[in-house]
Amino acid sequence: MKKIKFITCLIIAVFMASVFIQSCASSKEAIANKSGAQLWGENCIRCHNTPSPADFNDAQWKTVGLHMQVRANLTKDEAEKIVVFLQSAN
Amino acid sequence: MKIKIISVFFFMIAFGASFAQDTIQTQLDVITSEIQSLKKEDKTHFMLRGFAQFGLDATHDNINFNMTSFNPVLLWRQGDRFLFESELEMEFINNELDIHLGFANASYVVSKGLIVRVGKFLIPFGTFGEKFHPSWVNKFSTTPLGVGHDGIAPSADIGIEIRGGLQLGKSKLNYSIYGVNGPGIKDGTDEPEEAGMLSFENSTDNNNNKAVGSRIGFLPFANSSLEIGASGYYAMPGSEESPFEGDTLNEDLNYKEVSALLTAFDLSYVKIISPLKSIIDIKGQYSLSTVSKATYFNPEDTMRYSFTNNSSAYYAQLAFRPALADNAFLKNIELVGRYSAYTTPEGSLWESKQSQIAVGLNYWFTWRTVLKASYQITTIEKEGAPGEHSGHGGTTGNVFSLYFAVGL
Question: Does this complex have an ipTM over 0.90?
Answer without folding.
Answer: no
